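ingest -> validate -> predict -> emit
validate: passed (alphabet ok, no gaps, 59 aa)
predict: started
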Amino acid sequence: MKLKVKLVRGLAGKKKFQKEAIRSLGLRKINDERILEDNPMVRGNIEKVKHLIQVEEVK
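emit:
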């Protein structure tokens, strides 16, 4: 299964670990979307920044 991740909130004033998690997901700007494999590394980064992103499952 794959996950579609979209950055919906900006990174201004966020902590360094949150910015690094967003970058590791491949997101740069608001409204950037990426389709990623569902694995523990991706899930961990999503958990760190779940308040900044939108996630949906893709078949």
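The chain has one domain: 2-58.
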